[in-house]
Write a structure and sequence with these properties.
It contains 4 helices and 7 strands; from the N terminus they run E-E-E-E-E-H-E-E-H-H-H. The protein has helices at 87-90, 110-120, 149-152, 156-165, and strands at 3-5, 13-20, 37-46, 49-63, 70-84, 97-99, 106-108. The strands form 2 sheets. A 5-stranded mixed sheet has the order 2-3-4-5-6. Helix 1 links the parallel strand 5 (70-84) and strand 6 (97-99). The protein is rod-shaped and about 80 Å long. It binds zinc ion (2 copies).
């Protein structure tokens, strides 16, 4: 659980930093999130709304789609959440608007932060632009070794020879 104390939020910008573990945001079962999450909050109360801007920095583990190797990289994501005392505001179909009561002093930002991170995981993960991937014939990781599958298959005589060896 990741809570933000809004008891003393007055007019003007209030900044605070938090460190959360993936388990606190229910992210520990994911493939990607195993490192601490550094979250910088900027909270501002304007009228009957509290604007929470968050910037989340962490490191993520990805499996490369090309070579299958694990790699990690930095991720920085931001999320703007709006908490309002005004029920009508939430009906304007704004994405991240949550209604709170006048007596609310602690808000739980776990779920929106969790969603922000999950959505940020790219569909395609490649360890580096020049990743050569795996050979589609022998499965060799072409980043660390080379194989002869593609060069000698050009020549049918070699193909015949290889069939003899098998
Ligand atoms: Zn790769
Ligand atoms: Zn090969």
């Amino acid at each position: 659980m990741l809570n933000l104390n809004i008891a003393n939020v007055g007019e003007g910008l209030k900044k605070s930093d938090s460190i959360a573990q993936p388990a606190e945001l229910d992210l520990d079962k994911t493939e990607e999130f195993h490192y601490p999450l550094h979250i910088a909050f900027s909270v501002e109360k304007i009228g009957r709304n509290i604007f929470v801007d968050s910037e989340i920095r962490t490191k993520v583990d990805f499996l490369c789609d090309r070579c299958g190797e694990l790699f990690n990289q930095h991720m920085t994501e931001s999320a703007r959440l709006i908490y309002t005392y005004d029920g009508d505001m939430a009906n304007k179909e704004e994405d991240d608007v949550y209604v709170i009561s006048e007596s609310t002093t602690i808000i739980d930002v776990s779920e929106p932060i969790r969603q922000t991170l999950l959505v940020a995981v790219p569909q395609k993960k490649v360890c580096r632009r020049e990743c050569k991937g795996l050979c589609d014939r022998c499965g060799a990781n072409l980043n660390v070794e080379s194989c002869n599958c593609h060069t000698d298959s050009m020549d049918p005589r070699w193909e015949a020879l290889r069939n003899l060896i098998k």
